[in-house]
Write a structure and sequence with these properties.
Number of helices: 5
Strand content: under 5%
Distance between the termini: 33 Å
Helix content: 55-70%
Shape: globular
Radius of gyration: 15 Å
Structural class: mainly alpha
Order of helices and strands: HHHHH
Number of strands: 0
């Protein structure tokens, strides 16, 4: 086992491109107010974000994709996911993200 060296420079966090982040932000705003059955646009945006040209080619791991997505969700919707409908929306969003990522 190799010991962790805290002096090793940390890599900057890997993120999605600004174009995809903008698309996700627009979709988040549109979808947050939409009825539960009308979330097709966001699923498409998440699929784009997880596509080979974004996540895989950039070398993002699934957890990095989720961290970036959660950051965007918090910034765009201004919400701290704590309960009720916010929690259900957040759980759905993360699930859709992982499904799209592993379909690639």
């Amino acid at each position: 086992m190799i010991a962790y060296d805290s002096r090793t420079p940390r890599q900057p966090p890997r993120r999605l491109s600004e174009q995809v982040r903008d698309q996700l932000a627009q979709s988040l705003l549109a979808e947050w107010g939409a009825p539960a059955g009308a979330r097709d646009r966001l699923e498409h945006a998440v699929a784009v974000a997880a596509a080979a040209l974004e996540a895989a080619e950039r070398g993002l791991q699934p957890e990095e994709l989720i961290i970036d997505l959660k950051s965007l969700e918090s910034t765009v919707l201004g919400m701290d996911v704590t309960g009720g409908e916010q929690r259900r929306f957040h759980d759905w969003l993360v699930g859709a993200c992982l499904k799209a990522f592993y379909r690639v």
